[in-house]
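Please supply some protein, with fold tokens.
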Amino acid sequence: MSDHIEKTIDLKAPVSRVWKALTDYREFGAWFRVKLEGPFVAGKASGGQITYPGYEHVRMQVVVQKIEPERLFSFTWHPYAVEPDVDYSKETPTLVEFTLEPTPTGTLLRVVESGFDKIPKHRRDEAFRMNEGGWEEQMRNIARHVRKAA
């Protein structure tokens, strides 16, 4: 198992459109399926209730690390933290980085989630497996979102 997940997708939308879908908390919530309570601010926590069927009991909490307009958006979180009675706060979070590059047809979006080697061994493989599949789905979700809104 690797210590990171990396996914890329060519989006048929300009960088400015993809950037808005990533960093406007309402748009992010629409495609990511989470009802966030407020905007993303570097250095601050942002959270909300997951709306994805079967995971409505999960509260997503991220800490925004960097917002470099139309280039980089990153946050830390506890991957696959889905058990309501487990305190994940003592674990080292993973880092999620979205980078955008203009292409002749739109935007190359890359997401890298790193730091799985720091997740406790008893849940590392499951967190990696679930997020590997989750990022596949989220890349399709953002593609649909920016296509629909274009």
Helices lie at 15-23, 25-32, 121-149. The chain has a mean pLDDT of 96. Residues 4-149 form a domain with the Alpha-D-Glucose-1,6-Bisphosphate; Chain A, domain 4 fold (CATH 3.30.530.20).
